[in-house]
Design a protein that fits this description.
Elements lengths: L18 E7 L2 E7 L9 H15 L1 H17 L13 H5 L5
Antiparallel strand pairs: 1-2
Helix pairs in contact: 1-2
């Protein structure tokens, strides 16, 4: 598979991946991060995962609605134009806003 820049994405390593875990709970849900990297080795994926957790815990209603809309759009969409719909080049997307 290719990303937006045409670079090969087949070299993605699950062992370097950061996982956001969401589980049901009697009061709603719980969530957390599984990050194999040490704090001084954090990368863009670590920061995005932390941002997701922070956003979902302070805006659960918005996230729930977005999830419902996402499934609705996915269920009603007949064909995707290509296989890169879920690949985001954040450095190009934000153009210089990242430190």
């Amino acid at each position: 598979m290719k990303d937006f820049n045409g670079d090969d994405t087949d070299n993605i390593s699950i062992f370097n991946s950061v996982s956001v875990i969401i589980s049901p709970h009697e009061k709603g849900f719980i969530c957390g991060i599984v990050d194999p990297k040490a704090p001084k080795e954090r990368d863009i994926c670590s920061y995005i995962a932390k941002g997701l957790i922070r956003f979902v815990t302070t805006n659960a209603d918005i996230i729930y609605e977005e999830g419902m809309l996402g499934f609705h759009e996915e269920d009603t969409q007949l064909d995707r134009e290509d296989d890169t719909d879920n690949v985001i080049d954040l450095f190009s997307f934000k153009k210089g806003d990242l430190n």
